[in-house]
Amino acid sequence: MGDSAGDLPNDLKFHGPINGNILAAMALARCGVERMFGVVGIPVTSLATRAVSLGIRFIAFHNEQSAGYAASAYGYLTGRPGVLLTVSGPGCVHGLAGISNAMVNAWPFVMISGSCHSSYFGRGDFQELDQVEAVKPFSKFSVKATDISEIPNCVARVLNIAVSGRPGGCYIDLPSDILHQTISESEAERLLGAAEKFTHREVIYRVPNSQIEAAISLLRRAERPLIVFGKGAAIARAEGPLKKLVESTGIPFLPTPMGKGLLPDSHELAATAARSLAIGKCDVALVVGARLNWLLHFGEPPKWSKDVKFILVDICKEEIELRKPHLGLIGDAKEVLESINKEIKDDPFCLGKSHPWVEAISQKSKDNVAKMEVQLARDVVPFNFLTPMRIIRDAIAALGSPAPILVSEGANTMDVGRSVLIQTEPRTRLDAGTWGTMGVGLGYCIAAAVASPDRLVVAVEGDSGFGFSAMEVETLVRYQLAVVVIVFNNGGVYGGDRRTPQEITGPYKHDPAPTSFVPSASYHKMMEAFGGRGYHVETAEELKSALAESFSARKPAVINVTIDPYAGAESGRLQHKN
């Protein structure tokens, strides 16, 4: 088969027969895919190679799980489907972590897996698995190409469905024999042209003006209104109308963890530091792009008032029906907020700084921040979690704009970081998300660096979270990504061996505790082994120096921060669940 190229504006011209690998790569390029993540091997190595030749950047990982997490985060950060490529069988199974993470977080994602030869399916072929059935519980839509002619249509459909309505994961199955089928150049062009009509997003539901007026009426009459927003508002790029609504009405706001930064944490109407008061006393809550799930205590007492009226803005009709709010507005977060702002403009209202509710939130926030600052001001060595977190916060703040993208995972590390680290710009925080997924760290770092090459990426991770995907530090070095990984090393899950004497018994009592790792592990040397920069720090001055140097260099680095193993709490803030 010939594969020489002629010059075309948007893709490469392959001369001679076009096989399934080339056609899939061409379809992805024609549909605007710019980045792919994955692990190559039988039968998809050629697909990745062809995609690269067509101008798609392929980021190769060591494990499909991390690659899948990267693709899911890329979908969130860009608003375009993150694409994961895996091999057949076990590769597809490993990729389920990525597609399921995307589905639960409602991020656009497409997984493409090679699969065994169609004729041999059911007879024990190499890496045989009914992959479409395996993926179905975790995806919005799954499709298997049964002929090469179906590939462009399949590609366009899954990319479209992934972003339509509530975003989520889609799957394409490409059997090895289909990838080796061939068609002519002219037939390939015809198929690609026909498929392009599937690349347009479906029309979003428009909220009736009567519902917009009803929402405004509830907010206007409320004595203690609150605006809550989450990563659904972030992926909708709703920060502009959100800022306008908050500042024109004077209503305090509360972001979910990954909603932080849509409006700066330092904003005078931010209620994050007064969260318990805000959700416990508000009488009307406008919830935008955030689900009333465990992260928001299901919108139920005792955390919320039993009389609170929820106005829920969500792209998904089923979500509104599930939560049964006082008023549900089905639509795109940005468009709904723009409609609310437009309607308010004709009859404005504003609580004002002296409003009792605003004053109460403001005073409680100031009191709580002051208490936290007293704790943060102390340099505690051996490090607790607060001292290094304060130093990291100040180092990040000194960078100004564009703000780094922060990746946070771990139990204590993520919980403390959420309270201490400041987000000032939209979509600059990635954490364990709706599913509380551990192991996302390095994948998210890579996605962030690829999606936003103008920003530094700073990961603040527990040693357990880091360990899930630590080998991907080699990927950071290979692609020379501007990522600094800060590992809070306290010797294990939650902090090593915390067993009571009564618990240390039985025939294996001399084994390490289930929560323990090797004490004082040299994680920084992993990075050094691949040519990156490693730092081991135990004091405030050592950490400040390492941060200044690594932030300035904008090269792959690991800072191994020794933490007192007894500084944290088991399960972080979710002790009641363990």
From TrEMBL:
Alphabetical GO biological process terms: fatty acid alpha-oxidation
Residues of the Thiamine pyrophosphate enzyme TPP-binding domain: 412-561
InterPro entries found in the cross-reference section: DHS-like_NAD/FAD-binding_dom, HACL1-like, THDP-binding, Thiamin_PyroP_enz_cen_dom, Thiamin_PyroP_enz_TPP-bd_dom, TPP-bd_CS, TPP_enzyme_TPP-bd
Coiled-coil segments on the chain, per record: none
Pfam families for this protein: TPP_enzyme_C, TPP_enzyme_M, TPP_enzyme_N
Residue intervals of the Thiamine pyrophosphate enzyme central domain: 212-339
Keywords annotated in UniProt: Lyase, Magnesium, Metal-binding, Thiamine pyrophosphate
Known catalytic reactions: a 2-hydroxy-3-methyl fatty acyl-CoA = a 2-methyl-branched fatty aldehyde + formyl-CoA; an (R)-2-hydroxy-long-chain-fatty acyl-CoA = a long-chain fatty aldehyde + formyl-CoA
Co-factor(s): Mg(2+); thiamine diphosphate
Quaternary context: Homotetramer.
Function in brief: Catalyzes a carbon-carbon cleavage reaction; cleaves a 2-hydroxy-3-methylacyl-CoA into formyl-CoA and a 2-methyl-branched fatty aldehyde.
Annotated protein name in UniProt: 2-hydroxyacyl-CoA lyase
